[in-house]
Structure formats: C-alpha cells, structure tokens
Amino acid sequence: MLRPIVPANIKIHSFEYKKMEEIPEEIFERIKAGFERQKTDIPLISVNIIAWNEEQNILRNLSSLSAMKSAHLIEYVYVDNNSKDKTSEIMRKCGITPVFELKQGYGFARQAAMENSHGKYIITGDADTIYPPTWIDTMLKPILSGKGFATYGTYSFVPNKGDSRLRFAFYEFFRDIVHSLRTINRPELAVGGVNFCFPREEALKIGFIKSDSRMEDGQMAYALTKIGKLKRVTKLKAMAWTVTRSVDKSGSFFKAITSRIVKELKRVSIYFNKNQ
User: Fold this and answer.
1) Distance, CA of 203 to CA of 234 (rounded, Å)
2) Does residue 185 fall inside a structural domain?
3) Cα(186)–Cα(218) distance, integer angstroms
4) CA 12 to CA 58: how far, in whole Å?
5) How far does the chain reach from its first CA to its final CA, in angstroms?
6) Of 35, 89, 215, 233, which sits 20 to 30 A from 123 (CA to CA)?
7) What pLDDT does residue 21 have?
8) In the chain, which residues have pLDDT < 70?
9) Do the strands 230-232 and 150-152 form a parallel or antiparallel pair, or are they unpaired?
10) The pLDDT value given to residue 78
11) What is the pTM of this model?
12) Are 124 and 211 within 8 A, CB to CB?
C-alpha cells in the first residue's frame, strides 16, 4: 500500500531544530509532562530506545512517545551509547534519565536497555524515529491475543524539507513486497529494531549479539522463532516514521532504489528456503 503523505499525528512531532539551544522551553515542559502522566512502577511493557549522537533527531522521538495513548502501563528506557553531543541533556530536560552503555554497538545498547527494563514485554525503537500514539497497543495486541509470540512492524520515511514524500512511498512499496516474501519462511530477515516487540523473560535468556553490527535485531528474531511465531504487523497504527539517512547515504535516490533491487534479486531464492 502506498503512503503518499505523512500523517498529521506524525507531522506534529517533525521538529527542524539542529541544536538543543534552539528548542523552546515550553516544548521540553510539554514532553516532560507527557512522560510524567505515563509514569508507573509496574509496567506491562518497556519501550527500549537506543541513541548515539542524536541531538538533531531525538526530540521528535521523545515528543511522539510522550504523547502515547495506551490501555497498558508503560515504562521508557533510553540508552545513550557514548554520544558526543547533547543527546543525554535533551533526554533529561524531557524527564528521561538515560542509561549509559560504554561498549559501543547496537547489540550492547539493546542488551543494556533490556537489562534495565521491568516490563513483561519489550518493544524496541530508534531515537531518530517518530511513533504514532497507537503504536504500542497495536504491536502488543497480537501477542496478548495469542496470534503471535512476538511481533515486528515496518517503517516509512519522513522526507527532509523540500523533498518529495511520494518518491519514498514508491521505495517503501518495493521494500514491503520484499519483506512480504521474506515473511513466508524467513521472517527474521524482515525484522528491524526500529519496530519489534517480544517477551522480555525469553529474550533475556537469549541475549542480544555482542557486536557493533546491525544484525542484533535479526539475531534475536531468529532465536525467538525457535520458541514461537513471529507476527508481522503492517497497520498504519503501528507504523514507525524515521529519517531518510539510510537512503541518503547511497548518494542519490535513484542509486538507492536500483542498488536495493539488484541486491534483493541476487538473494531472492533464500526467502523460499526455511532456515533450519
């Protein structure tokens, strides 16, 4: 399904500040009050967010999560993985006390977040990403209803000012087809830490891979498939909206999409072979 526009409940959090000093005090106060309203000592679910040098983006994430609407008790666990900018200062001004992980790497940061969580369930996200107010409950529902042991969602891009949202929508349309193929026999290949929900107790026994490689989410997902079913959630209510740097790093949009097509065509056969 094409998503040609950014929803209003995402757009309201799309701040353009580049430095902490540019952020009005009233925004900090609003976000802090939102987290205070959700505060609990007995969470059902722990939201785990990892960050590294996200001064320019993390306010979007904090703002969206402070506005979360849920029928369940929630805690927020943020990990600062050796940021050199004012990432942690922004967290504190928003009412969040960060956990510090000195070992550099996605796996180390995810593990630290999980070990500092208290909920029965974990939902992982990224600090450069905006989430809709229905995100948590939509991702958790299949697990609570017994339709899945763990769930994973997808993501869309919030274009930079002046960029076309439509072109990213076409890129995502192709990617979603690829993820649908992966889901047949290799769901772990479609899982991303940007949108992933699972039981904490079982995940703690497995542990995230100890490295700086961006494979910590897939490794955890693969291990969880040995215990129960991974359920894909594609509803807009659970859609994560993130920055475009994963596409931008290719140099051009055309290069990003063509290289992705070539890459997927080379390995499409593995999507039909069940991992043992």
Assistant:
1) 23
2) no
3) 10
4) 14
5) 32
6) 89
7) 95
8) 249-254, 256, 260-272, 274-276
9) parallel
10) 98
11) 0.93
12) no
Number of helices and strands (H, E) in the chain? 11, 10
Q: Which two tokens stand for residue 107?
A: 């796996």
What residue has token string 């590294």?
52
Greatest Cα pair distance, the chain, in angstroms, is 54
Residue 45 in any domain: the answer is: yes
Q: What is the CATH number of the domain that holds 232?
A: 3.90.550.10
Burial 119-136 (b: 16+ CB within 10 A, else e): bebbbbbbbbbbbbebbb
* Structure tokens, 255: 């290069």
Tokens representing 266 are 């080379």
Contact 191, 22 (CB under 8 A): no
Encoded tokens for 128: 């450069």
Which phi and psi angles does 274 have, rounded to 5°? -70, 130
- On the 0-12 / 13-18 / 19+ scale of CB atoms within 10 A, 32 is middle
Residue with tokens 């679910």: 45
Residue-number span of the structural domain to which 93 is assigned: 8-164+190-243
Q: Name the helix (H) or strand (E) containing 129.
A: strand 129-130
pLDDT on residue 271: 67
